Amino acid sequence: MKRILTNTIYRDPPISSPTRPAVQFDDDRRATGRDWPTVAHTMVGRARLDNVQDCVSTVILDDVPGDLVETGVWRGGTSIFMRAILRAYGVTDRVVWAADSFEGMPVSGPESHPSDQQTPLYRYNQVLAVSLDTVRANFDVYGLLDDQVRFLPGWFRDTLPGAPIERIAVLRLDGDLYESTTDALTSLYPKVSPGGYVIIDDYMIAACREAVHDFRSAHGITAPLVAIDQDAVFWRLAGTP
Questions:
Q1: pTM for this one?
Q2: Which of 1, 114, 191, 240 is spaced 20 to 30 Å from 63 by Cα?
């Protein structure tokens, strides 16, 4: 699954991104999520998929209650991988929630957080915007589109506060921006079970990193941030299920 989700099998070339000029396919860049693939269903790279596998497997084996949530899914690859892990373990009582605008990044206007105004990722929505129909189709080609997959389409500030998610075992944030990260943490972090995990995909982006630090400081979160690769971090909540 990891090899096909990152498409290291057919080695599709990358697309130019704001900080990652297009080059020919490079194994190391793809493995560490440092390119925007033309075809692959995820851009997070092998190291971050390894982390997802470790976190999801651990909460299953430790019986940490709750669903698996990703906020910001792009083509759906990492959420698809979460569903595949549940299938591999024969887990039928957990749901994968895929939350996304399915319209790309929000416009960072004058009323946006100052850090987001300096991170105009919406300019790349021709690559970053992937429709809900496309993501559903991507789940389907793996045979993983079923009632254990739920979609939350819309901006996080609108969809997450009232999302019908009771408990979370793994919360993976991939919203890039200060406001998107804060919206997700504010609405969903209180639902993460003791022993559960929070994964921050875009920690290397200043706006996201600032949001994480502000939230952790405001809520007295002291669990150490553990590096996954050059971009992403995660932490595990204290306590037992």
A1: 0.94
A2: 1
